């Protein structure tokens, strides 16, 4: 019976810690988003444009060939982006390439 109580206490502590960490991560994500937005506004105000990552021409070439998966992989290698971020960026790039106006 003591083992059962100990297990329940450990589960409760683990749940509390997970909840606390999750809340802290969400707060940090919101803060990072605010800082990125402010930095973007500051750079726009100063007229500074972010340079295009090296290797993006290869991504464009792969898109022109219809090799989207390879383009996503090349984008990830060139920028260090995660899969979801790279997929979104390559899809946006494909839309721009298809309709430049």
Question: How does this model look, in words?
Answer:
The protein is mainly α. It has four helices and no strands. The termini are far apart. The mean pLDDT is 91.
Could you name the key traits of this structure?
101 residues; mainly alpha; elongated; Ribosomal protein L7/L12 C-terminal domain-containing protein; coiled coil; Ribosomal_bL12_C/ClpS-like
Q: Layout of helices and strands, plus pairs?
A:
Blueprint: H1 2-46, H2 56-64, H3 68-79, H4 83-98
Helix pairs in contact: 2-3, 3-4
**N to C succession of SSEs:** HHHH
Low-confidence residue ranges: none
Q: In one word, what is the shape?
A: elongated
Largest sheet: none
Helical fraction equals over 70%
Rg for CA atoms: 22 Å
Mean pLDDT figure? 91
Number of strands: 0
- The N- and C-terminal alpha carbons lie at a distance of 72 Å
Any idea how many domains? 2
Structural class: mainly alpha
Number of helical elements? 4
- Classify the beta-strand content into a percent band: under 5%
Quick structural overview:
The chain has 101 residues and is mainly alpha-helical.
